[in-house]
Structures are given as C-alpha cells and as structure tokens.
Amino acid sequence: MKVPAFYKHMMDLVDSIDDCETKRRTLPCLTLLYAGMDVMASLDSIPGEGVRGGFVRWANTFLLTERSFECSALDLYAARCGVVHTFTPESDLHRQGKARKIHYAWGTAEVDKLSRATQALGHDYASVHLSDLVNAFRDAVAEHLKVIERDRTKRERFESMSGLWFSDLSKSIMDDFIELTERNAGA
Question: Which of 1, 86, 143, 168 has a 20 to 30 A CA-CA distance from 154?
Fold first, then answer.
C-alpha cells in the first residue's frame, strides 16, 4: 500500500495509547483508543453508511472476533460517545436503553471482580479490562490491514480515505515551495 502517512500516524497513535495506559492516564487512553476505532472504521466505511453503523460493523468484523468481552459493538460505540464527548460512561444510547454502560478495570485489577461487584450493586454494566481492549484494538488494526492487502476494492477505498490524512511537511520544503512560487509569479 502507498500510504506511509497512515503507518506513521497509526504507530504514533498506538504508541500514545500504550504510553497513556502505562502512565495510568485512563481517560486519555480511552479517548485515544475510541478515536482510533473511529478512524479504522472510517477507513472501512461503506458510502452512505453512518458513523455508528460503520463503527459497529468494524468492531464486529475486526475487534470482537477473537476476544471474549461482556460488551457488544453497540455498547462500545455508546462508550465511545460518552468518553470522547464528556469523559463519562453516559450516552444517548444508554439513556434510551439501547446499550449497556461499560466499566473498566486497569492495571492489576481483575475484570471478573469488577463484574461481580457491578452485579452485586444491581447494575447491568459490561466490565472490560483496559489492557484487553488495547490489545484487541492493536490486533484488529493488524487484521484489518491484512484484509486490505488482499482485497483490491477495500485497498483502493482505504488508500483514498487515508490519503486525506494530515501529513508532515518540513519547513525547508515549505520555504522552497514559497520561494519557487513567488519567483514564478514575478516572472
């Protein structure tokens, strides 16, 4: 594939997610993680498909296939809405009863104990370990890239979409460009 900016930005994103997790910056970690899921889903989007539909389809196809989570792809989408927009587990989908809240364990905490405590309190929340979600995302990105390599139509769409990303441009290239355009304009 011919999208080097994609690889650099995704590596930076995954490194930042790992850094946040290591430093116990849980909300920034979740924010980056859900933003990464959004990005990957957008690169696999079907024309006319909404953000929610694309996110849920991508999560079902790549994120939740090899892992056993208490949550559904729609629960993850609702969690993404809450975390990214308000740093809370609250979203319209939760309030409408269409998705379950997700509670997170991290570090040495055990997801099973969090789940049992949540149930003991009478809540129907999904419990997920942050490390499991981070690892699932990393694996999902890798699997998605394998699929893109094999499928020409998906690859073309992916290259088209990722070609819209920001890219790095050195100061010297910008200076040379300005100099050249100003010289040509004066000619």
Answer: 168
